[in-house]
Amino acid sequence: MSGPHKEITIYDIAEALSLSPATVSRGLKDHPAIRKDTRKRILDKAREMGYQQNMFASNLRRARTNTIGVIVPRLNSYFMSVVIAGMEKVANAAGYNLIISQSAESMKKEETNVRTLYNSRVDGLLVSVAYDSDSLSHFNLFLDKSIPLIFFDRVLDHPQCTSIVIDNYKAAYEVTTHLIRQGSTRIVHVTAQSKGAVYADRLRGYRQALRDNDLAFDESLVLAGNLSEQAGAEAARAILAMSPLPDGVFSANDSCAVSCLRALKQAGISIPGQIAVAGFNNDPVSKVVEPNLTTVNYPGEEMGELAASTLIRRLDRLEGASLNTIVLRHELVVRDSTLRKKP
Amino acid sequence: MSGPHKEITIYDIAEALSLSPATVSRGLKDHPAIRKDTRKRILDKAREMGYQQNMFASNLRRARTNTIGVIVPRLNSYFMSVVIAGMEKVANAAGYNLIISQSAESMKKEETNVRTLYNSRVDGLLVSVAYDSDSLSHFNLFLDKSIPLIFFDRVLDHPQCTSIVIDNYKAAYEVTTHLIRQGSTRIVHVTAQSKGAVYADRLRGYRQALRDNDLAFDESLVLAGNLSEQAGAEAARAILAMSPLPDGVFSANDSCAVSCLRALKQAGISIPGQIAVAGFNNDPVSKVVEPNLTTVNYPGEEMGELAASTLIRRLDRLEGASLNTIVLRHELVVRDSTLRKKP
DNA sequence: GAAGATAATGCAACCGATTGCATTTAATTA
DNA sequence: TAATTAAATGCAATCGGTTGCATTATCTTC
Question: Is B267 in a helix, a strand, or coil?
């Protein structure tokens, strides 16, 4: 069957109850100027007739959509899916929908996404930027109109925008220090060729840890790629070609660290004996690879929840744009891939 | 700054060009009854004034949203994130947005999601159902109005709905047969307590393979849980308590298989020597665990792309609701966790 | 019970794009 | 050049809630 199946509108309800559409509209909300029993009659009748509110009419009039736009580099990573799960939970509970789009690590695509979401009139934006996003200009559509914009994980700095991050500098410092304590002195750092602050911060943490332990920073030990599995394998190849062989690897994410670790192992290197390996993110694979991977854990789901709830509070005018940065806790998770001396 | 920041409408453009809003509206599309140069003038002026179409007004009038609703059990699994990545790619390219929600494996939540998405007037729905969804009644809102509804991966059967699946029966049959060929005779099957067809099909495949190889089906070897990591560990405990010890495990997903495998290993069982273990999904962890996990690979991204493109073709009236089921290819990926005899 | 205050409801304009039909303009033909 | 046809544009209603203001019903108070 198909048929036109007339939608029920407030006009239908109004007619059925001999009321005006205006009263019905107000009754459906909790407008103070509506008598309790009238309100009840309206709600009952609405339920009885199977009324469903037409969001467009409402959105058109109120110029709000109860929709949040999300832009992420890629959807297909475990970490990101957990973050989004957290966002969805909070948003859904608060009556918001999520529209999600991927930038595929391209600033150009990111720009397109921004435009699309703007046209969809999302009430606010949650963004984790692409590797090559170095400026904010493509967000002007939102910034100029003061439509709330919140960055998470991979952030850009702007006075109007809240950022939700972890202390990447400190975390990287801790990882590197840990490697050094375990006896590593020539530590390779596998990172991203990115213009964003996240990877720069991790690099800074790595360098500072070296410096604080009187180890020289060696440019040639920094391998910048795209942190994919493939990049991990390539990093391993590069490492194996180095002489003398490094004795530590700190990769800026886990999937890359794991593929690097496995490639090294396959080449006959003992982990952590000859080379200790550490990652970042606490991806499920880190617990499975042998030896288990030392990594940095940080709460993805919480990050998503926090991003969404911060945005929603601002949208609901419960909070201004005062807070600029929220730093989530992180923790170094030490596992066998770096553990040479048992405590 | 905030200010009202007057939005540009087609009325503004019309006024600026001394045209009627109707002409502008048509000019912005490619309506045949608009002169080429008029159209160009309109487009130029629109660009110049920074016009952005108001979707609500348009949606309200056309009763279409160019938005697709997606309901999945959980967002935070690798497989699902890959599927959604595929959907987003196709949808975005075709000018559609995705609104995503999670059922958290609960039919009740699923029902709420359906209602929300209905209210958001999505043009169609892509659904992978929760474990405990056994009926279709909560989709009636869509079915009654013939709003396209497509199931993927975890599907329910309905004449109006296309389903996109793999041949779960066959895949499970292949896995089980493979285990038998490798010498297993007492094979545990770890599955979900689910009302859906997917897991029932896999169980059927498992049973048929046993039968075809003259092995008795033993109810007590079927462990139904929720296929979580925890369930895998529990399954391992149950297995270790069995006497005689089983010599094969076929888990209906990888993360469960992996945690089971690791727990068995930790208990001193040799894999695949004493117990061969196989999973399902080809999750990244399956390539990392040692020994690498034998599993079934099937194309998540393609599944997502196909679900989205099928839906969109139907929405754009390029295609009727003729095809009922699309079966994607799958393949048995044999790895060391089951390999006893080298060929 | 009338006057004034308060609560409850209704009126009607609006949000901005779309579209059937009418009208104007341009092109073609006689 | 007038008449006919085709092409281009405009008019005005419509989609379904929302909301400022006006109106009516109800309640106080003297």
Answer: coil
Residue of A nearest to B109 (CA): A92
Predicted TM-score (pTM) of the model is 0.84
For position A19, what pLDDT does the model report? 87
Which helix (H) or strand (E) covers residue B223, if one does? strand B222-225
Terminal alpha carbon distance of chain B: 73
If you measure CA to CA, which chain B residue comes closest to A255?
B284
Closest partner residue to B101 among A53, A65, A88, by Cβ? A88
B36 CA to C26 C1', in Å? Answer: 15
In this complex, the residue with its CA at the shortest distance from the C1' of nucleotide D15 is B61
Is A52 part of the contact surface with chain B (CB cutoff 8 Å)? yes
| CB B312, CB B90: distance < 8 Å | yes
Write the CB contacts of A97 (distance below 8 Å, at least 6 apart in sequence).
A66, A67, A68, A91, B99, B101, B116, B120
User: Left (φ > 0), alpha (ψ -120 to 50) or beta: where does B18 sit?
Assistant: left
* pLDDT at residue A4 is higher than 60: no
For the segment A284-315, what is each residue's pLDDT rounded down to a tens digit?
999 999 999 999 999 999 999 999 999 988 88
Give, rounded to a whole angstrom, the gap between the first and last alpha carbons of chain A: 72
Token pair of A263, please? 């490639």
Nearest CA in chain B to A51: B119
Q: CB B99 to CB A53 under 8 A? A: no
Identify which of A343, A111, A108, A87 has the alpha carbon closest to the alpha carbon of residue A100: A87
The β-bridge partners of B39 are none
**Rounded to a whole number, what is the distance in Å from the CA of A119 to chain B's nearest CA?**
6
The Cα A319–Cα B289 span in angstroms is 47
In B190-322, which residue ranges form alpha helices assigned H by DSSP?
197-212, 229-240, 254-266, 284-288, 300-315
pLDDT of residue A317: 67
Q: Which residues contact B10 (CB under 8 A, 6 or more apart)?
A: B21, B24, B25, B28, B51
Reply yes or no on whether the pLDDT at A148 is more than 70.
yes
Q: Is the CB of B16 under 7 A from strand C?
A: no
Nearest to B337 by CA among B257, B239, B227: B257
Q: Determine contact: B78 vs chain A, CB below 8 A.
A: yes
User: Closest to A52 (Cβ–Cβ): which among B74, B75, B119?
Assistant: B119
User: Helices H, strands E: what count in chain B?
Assistant: 13, 12
Q: How far apart are CA A231 and CA A234, in angstroms?
A: 5
Separation CA A277–CA A274 (nearest Å): 10
Which residues in chain A touch residue B80, judged by CB atoms under 8 angstroms apart?
A: 81
Q: Who's near A13: CB < 8 A, 6+ residues apart?
A: A19, A24, A42, A45, A46, A49, A51
**Domains of chain B and CATH, by start:** 10-53 (1.10.260.40), 65-166+300-330 (3.40.50.2300), 168-297 (3.40.50.2300)
SS3 content of chain A, % helix, strand, coil (to 5): 45, 15, 40
- Pairing type for strands B149-152 and B295-297 reads unpaired
Task: Residue B332: name the closest of B276, B264, B261, B279 by CA.
Answer: B279
